[in-house]
Amino acid sequence: MHKDPHSFARPVEAVVRNLDLALKVDFSSSTLSGRAVLQIENIKGVPHLYLDSNRLHIERVTLNSNEEPTTFRLDPSVRYLGQALVIDIKADTVTVNIYYKTDPEAAALQWLTPGQTAGGKKPFLYTQSQCILARSWVPCQDTPAVRMTYQAHIEVPPDLLAIMSAENSQKRNSTGIYEFRMPQSIPSYLLALAVGDIEFRATGPRSGIYAEPSMVDRAAWEFAETEQMIEVIEKMYGPYLWGRYDLIVLPPSFPWGGMENPRLTFATPTVIVGDRSLVSLVAHELAHSWSGNLVTNATWNDFWLNEGFTNYLDHRVMEALHGKEYDQMLSALSLEDLQKEIQEIGSGSRDTRLKLDFTGRDPEDATTQIPYDKGQFFLRTIESYVGRTRWDEFVKAYFQHFAFQSITTEEFLQYLRQNLVNGDGQLERDLQIEAWVYGAGVPSNIVEVKSTALDKVDQQVSEWLNGKPAGQLRTDKWSTQEWMHFIRKTPAAAGDQVMSELDSAFHFSDSQNAEVLNEWLLQAISKQYKPAYPAIERFLSSNGRRKYVKQIFTALGKTPEGLEYGRQIYAKTRGAYHTVTRDIADRILRS
Question: N or C: which end of the chain has fewer CB within 10 A?
């Protein structure tokens, strides 16, 4: 077990091995209520079990199957971490039964009114447990170092369907009672529940899509390659060990692009664009079934082990399905994003290291491009030195060796040196491992990335800058990524006339593609192109994805006028955002 600075748990003393939930979902009070039964191993025979909680209302606690009453306390709240729930146990205690209710403001729970859903007729609930929000809806050892199996008995209104990160029903029943089982051990941040007017469509023998009725067929078409993606990763890195791989497309307030809850990825509707150009998100979340869910970062300071490997894997999937050139285009944009992030954070900042130190800080702040893209470029660089065949053999063995375990960066580096570097001093020097992991910025040996597709976009940009009208540029069949690159090349000094020409030719302000629109709005803000400003409010009012909200409010906040406009918008939109999105927007827009 590893000491986690973001958890009160003491799993080295007594550890949770299984969770059995029995909860009732009450939309009228925005609460979950019921019981959590924790099967524990009292390793050291200690008199106390330490759990994490955050605004949970604990009614009573009993021990073992005979429900022997016991005492407990909730320690004072700590910023970001919530409260330690300390339960008196005995040396021979095997189960702890906690009767409780969630708070209506529980950080993990997003309660949506019918008007906030696509259908407009029925309410919706979804959870977001990562990074340390599981403790706001389940009393648990809320650290990725602890893995547990779980079962659940969930009662919902009979006209709604409940699904979890577990074995799921594909149809609603008349009772509103659903039983779940997750036989593989998972960390608490992968606990997930969604309840709503949800339908299912199969995309393959072990994959499918859940979504609201008006969205489900479009989503099933968009994600039709899911089964192929599973097969691609299996050929490279071993069998998929989680049974089924399904996705649910959530309402627009969902704060992330995707969340890799095992057996049931949660996904944003912003990737449903009608041309499958954003399905690398599915490849990413699926890849987590190996990197993250199977082999997990032991603490959030080791977050890159989850996300760097996963970004690397999803690029390999996209290369296998759509060719090397397509992946090179994605990689070039990723490198642009990484360079921009490092510039904004500061090239010498400790936060640009792969091995982070977020002690005393919200681990949510670690979700920058650093663990994702610096992590994947580190791995791509290793591959460039040792060759793909040798690298793939190493990665496959790594997943098998640490399967269903949580590890630190140091454990990975030890395994890397023992099983790949293997005492080769020249290779150790070439790889610059210490610089990548513990150094700020990006080392000099980063693998080179070139994209002929983006070079062709650059050629069109050059012709436009040399006087060719925007409407005459060769943009037929451009992908989302090509449009994003084109927009990013808008000259810094472009005035209203130039921006108006682009908007008239390509209708960016009216784009239904969230990635394209986001890039355009960032350009409009930086150049104070006011005709696009109504689109800013429309976008922020209909989309709660954290990435977009953070980028746009940050851009607005760079001028006093923009900051005031952002605050006006946020006053209208804040209530529709998930806690994760609200927290970052609050910090950006505070006076």
Answer: C
